[in-house]
Amino acid sequence: MSGDALLQHCQALRDDPEFRRWDTSEYIPLSAIAAPPDLPWVAVLSQIDDAPPAEEAVAAVRKALARGDRRLVGVLGPPFSGQTSAMRRLAWQLAERPALGAPIFVDLVRYAAQPAGGRRLCRTISEAARAYVSALADEVDDLLAGAPPQGAPALADAQIVFILDGLDSVQRQLRDDLARELLSLVGDPRLAAQRFVLSCRRESLPPAIAPRARLLLLQYLSGREVLRYLRARRGSPAQANTRFGQILDAQLLDLAALPPLLANILSRLEDRHSGALTRNQLLQDNLDAQLADLPAYLQRGDVARQSLIALSWEMSWQPDEALDINRVFAILGEIRRERSYNLEDLYEQLCAAGVLHDVDRRQATFQRPGQRAYCAALALIQRESLPDALDDLLPQCAVVERQDRWEPVLISLAGMVADYTPLMPISQAARATNNGLYMVLLARCLQALPRGMFEQLSPRERGALLDACAAWADPAREPSGVRRAQIADALGCLPDAVSVRALLRLACERIRPAIARRLDYEYTSVRLSAALGLRNLMLFRPPTKPAGVALWTNVAPPTVAALRAWVAAGDGDEASIRLIAQGPGTPIEARIIALFALADMAADGHDLLFLMRQIIAPPPPGRPDDWEALIRTAADALTLCDASKVAALIGHLLRRPPHLRDEAVAQLIYIAGRVRASDPATLAWLAAQLMSHADPQIRATALRSLAWIVGGEPALTLAGAPLAPALLAAARALGRAPLGELAPPPPLGPIPPLDREADDPGVVYLRRTALECLRWLPGDADFAGLAAEAESWPIELRRALSRSAALRG
């Protein structure tokens, strides 16, 4: 590469503490999902069991940059997700090997300070390049502007990654100009070697950017990721388990999902002089610390806090988080009354303290997720009659969009109350309306009760509340797998024998109605939530402690042993997990738990191979139900492992496909799709199952896996022909009428007819799956044409079609 100034810049960035710190344990790894091209990111996040596998965010960005098919990578994250720390870590890593892509980190907060005009973004980038080496600014400006009169730019041969961080900090009316200039740079053939990374909140991405960028969707931390971080940070698994148990015991796991709050929680827990930590104390102290930065005259009479409480209450009744600025000042004026402070000054100070966020001088919102909800909960506490206030707002929670606004408020309220009685109307509303949204809300509120209050309830009261939640986790009561998984997550933080029984049932039993009136295991996401919840309960309420004895009294000893080995894994107990998993005399429940445990702790290829062998090995003699349970569990468990390693293992296996029974074929197809295995051998094998297998359910599974894979990589080919158009044609044809012989274009061959009746459950399942696959496949699915034919279709097929059309936007 050329450019001494660029090399000096990279070395200075590596030495800068503001970047170097993110290569230490201060950095909390985030996960990201790659959004398939042309599919709205909202659709991706709403499909839990269909979504692409998550991977570490910085690694995902580097992988996207290395692909080369898109010169712009968009990193979209929810508020307070640690996005900037990930972008700084990316810059620090890239600076180590600048020949492969030298980073220039650009804080877009400086964009508005540049003179208006067509090169405003270029000037912002040049200013950022000046941070360490002033000469680099002119060289970067020459590069972005094109060759100067005297010859080629000094950086003409360099590869640079421009990291544009924080589009949210740019005023909304300026973002379209920034987007136009950015897309002009991305499309400039003179800059073909350069790459751009743009980070912002999901809702802040200009519409023009999405079609030109490879989008990565950051996620908040899962409980599993929190524990993994603690184990990496603490070194000793036992110490990490202790710290994680403290988080669970204090009911802080949902707050720990936000990396900055997790860092705060750990700092508090590690402070020997800090008292017992509760969620209410944590939220209160965070707000107090922000308000302490205000001038003294704004702290008198608690005016700032009361202003925020009033604003949060008003915002909670709005359709979105932002409130019109005129209404903001009207509310601030109502709180001020006869005091003499300036409202503009109060507003500016609250924004400067990081509590409020000004949106283009037109609207205002709270900066931190959860702070609006916390302040609104304080407003609820201050109401004359809390029961009457709850009666007014609970009907709002019957609708998904409104529940999203009020659920965090009621969860914060649960962390403040002196007893659980305010939660009873939620349980009553669930029973009266038969609406599972209320039961998810109840489970999460129980999870947020202050330390010890949950276990201080009488066994009768606690059992009644948990029985209600557990009953709604049953597929016969709650049709939404997403909500069943949410209830399982909450039960995994509620130490009681009812929780243990419910989670074991979700993880280990066939309870979900499936095709032809048979029962199947729960969806993967529900089973994993249940299994990880059992691990959580064993971790902070083991039978070796008095508080945990009652939880495990009626659980089979082999299952308890499997869970204890899971918690102890990392201290050399992985071998005992394998022994439990493969013991032919061990009860199936314990073997299922052991497979989940092994996948959660999988450290190397031996663990992956062990799990894969559960699927591909010949069935042992006798007990076919146990064999089916194990291969299904192994497939579900493998989704916890590194997707790229599982995909590589599948690709190696399918170079010489083994002879497998249909049950194993179905699970191998499923896991190949879940990890997006896209090597030629896997694609050819999946296509063969789609074209030639006699079982319509296996054809459906193969089509779905291929749709998942091709949806993420539309340019994939098979036998030299593009696969996406052929799959789209096959999905349309199978969705319409799969009984006759079908002839999709190459590389797919003829699909022979099914020897089934049109109303056969397997045929209907194949049609429904094909219609669902249309949401993932690129190209024109002609939803309008299909809708015109669908009037005579069964209702479940019409629903599948309309759902796919809606998700495609």
Please describe the structure with a list of short key phrases separated by commas or semicolons.
809 residues, single chain, Rossmann fold, 56% helix, 3-stranded antiparallel beta sheet, globular, alpha/beta, 7-stranded mixed beta sheet
Please, could you describe this protein's structure?
- By secondary structure, the chain is of the alpha/beta class.
- The chain folds into four domains: 4-219, Rossmann fold; 383-546; 556-641; 646-809, Leucine-rich Repeat Variant (Alpha Horseshoe), CATH 1.25.10.
- The protein is built from 40 helices and 14 strands.
- Strand 11 and strand 12 form a beta hairpin.
- Helix 37 (723-736) crosses helix 38 (761-773).
- The model has no long low-confidence stretch (mean pLDDT 91).
CATH topology of the largest domain, anyone? Rossmann fold
CATH hierarchy, class of the largest domain: Alpha Beta
Instruction: Please tally the helical runs, counting DSSP H or I stretches of 4 or more residues.
Output: 40
Structural class: alpha/beta
Task: Provide the low-confidence segments as ranges.
Answer: none
> What's the CATH H-level homologous superfamily of the largest domain?
P-loop containing nucleotide triphosphate hydrolases
